[in-house]
Design a protein that fits this description.
By secondary structure, the chain is mainly alpha-helical. It is built from eleven helices and no strands. The longest helix is centred in the first third of the chain and has 21 residues. Keywords: DNA-binding.
Length: 213
């Protein structure tokens, strides 16, 4: 039995979130029960439910924390004074580098976003069957999302409104660009390909060329 010192409540909450992240990356979402998280975090069952109402609540908290940290790191390099095409390439490289450096977080996001049962628990996430273009438009305007999350999607919308990119569905634009960056990072992390900085820069430009008019 692990007793929680109320003076370290915040630290224990972080330990629970970190334990959940590690275990889900190791065993998968469906094979990570609260009991396993409790053991890894050295927290009692009661301690976990003091911080999170349920496993779904824990997962949602972890999801939005990762999403906010990820987008904050990505847009840190954004320079609003640059042309939109240059901003796109900078953000593309930032997305790739984040994905490469945070494989546990990427594994969690990939699993979490693919489970409809979990999606339905959070009003900020779309209902099953929501058109993907509607989803991206929603992410551009939803006030309860971190500002950085909106920036990434707004850039795509701004590019299309200004006629700088092809008139394709927004989800296709996103998959050809941001999605490609994350998938490539996954291949590099797995040792399937090695890319120099020069090649990465050219790849970012190639992704831009794929969508540019």
């Amino acid at each position: 039995m692990f007793e929680e010192d109320p003076r370290h409540s915040g630290e224990k909450r972080e330990a629970i979130l970190e334990a959940a992240l590690e275990l889900i990356a190791e065993h998968g979402l469906q094979h990570t029960p609260m009991s396993l998280i409790s053991k890894r975090a050295k927290a009692s069952a009661g301690g976990i439910y003091h911080h999170f109402e349920s496993k779904e609540d824990l997962l949602q908290t972890l999801y939005w924390r990762i999403k906010e940290e990820m987008t904050h790191a990505i847009v840190a390099a954004d320079d609003l004074s640059q042309p939109l095409a240059k901003r796109f390439q900078t953000l593309w490289l930032s997305i790739f580098r984040y994905g490469l450096a945070h494989r546990q977080e990427m594994a969690f996001l990939e699993q979490y976003e693919s489970v409809p049962r979990v999606k339905s628990q959070d009003a900020r996430l779309p209902e099953e069957g929501t058109p993907l273009d509607d989803l991206i438009e929603r992410f551009c305007t939803q006030n309860d999302l971190p500002g950085e999350v909106q920036i990434l999607y707004r850039l795509i919308v701004d590019l299309r409104v200004q006629g700088l990119i092809k008139d394709l569905p927004l989800i296709i634009i996103s998959e050809l660009t941001y999605g490609a960056a994350l998938r490539l990072a996954k291949h590099v992390h797995a040792g399937q390909v090695h890319l120099s900085d020069a090649t990465l820069t050219e790849t970012a430009k190639a992704c831009w060329d794929a969508i540019a008019r």
